[in-house]
Amino acid sequence: MKTPITGPAIRMRRLRRNAQVRRLFAETTVELRNLVMPYFIVPGSGVLRESAPNSGLWQVTADRLADEVALLVDAGVGGVMLFGVPDEKCDDGSKLEAQLVPTRKATEALRQRFPELVLFADVCLCSFTAHGHCGIVRDQVIANDESLAVLAKMAVLLGSYGIDFVSPSDMMDGRVAAIRGALDEARLHDVGVLSYAVKMASAFYGPFRDAAHSAPQFGDRKSYQMPAGNRREARREWVLDEAEGADALLVKPALTNLDVIRDVREASDLPIFAYQVSGERAMLVAAAENGLLDYARAMEETLLSIRRAGADVIVSYEARPRALAARGR
Ligand code: PBG
Q1: For domain 30-326, is the CATH number 1.10.260.40?
Q2: Rounded distance from Cα 84 to ligand 1 centre (Å)
């Protein structure tokens, strides 16, 4: 005799019945160790300020950085990424060493206090030049090969200060190979390269350019950053960077590139980073300020989705507030 059917035999809701059941079966988590916090290093002393009210982008001087970062280290943050923002700009790379003095002091201070804190530093020229482009400019054109030498020099300087992973975000062709070669020549074999392998020419970088003084003064970045619609081209970018010796790959922005993050995850065995950029955060802040959504829940959902897409590590301005909340501040 057949048992009468009383409803669906398979019930998905058994796995969602209460918070403990849901916690047990959670496939993806976002922990502080998965997050890297960016800081904008400005010249001078005594400064720790947000670039604009509630931007979440922190500008800090070298003397204040170690105390600030201590809060994050205590809470277990994955790492810290430094962006040098010099006051004086220079278009040919000849003043790099002077421009990097605050970044050098910041790196040394962090290294001394936290010997094993994982330190990343941006390699790019947009904050260092008056024109705000990511490479050397000749007659209004970004000169790729000339830029490589300057970027490589910047990487070697940062590596010599104690940075663990230099992070080229300039999108010049051949820069991973140029940087790897220059680091090895300088005997900085243990300094790694986190390559911004897939970086789209994006509308989501606005608040960052304000904090980093890096908005292009003419034209745009479309001759070096990628068109957002091109998935095959994205693959060529990360395949190249892997072949050139990158230790880890980064995709950016994060939320608009979840498919690309998944593509990289499935085709590469390198660690994958995603950068939740300034505009992604600003979008949530603005919506929450207008009463349209709950910031904490929406932020958690985006971070979870980025991890689910395949990112091991997320560079996110949310690392700081999360760390402070974890410490009960
Ligand atoms: C520049 C750089 C940018 C970001 C990281 N590195 C901006 C740009 O390309 O214009 C954006 C990060 C963010 O918006 O948070 N090399």
Answers
A1: no
A2: 12
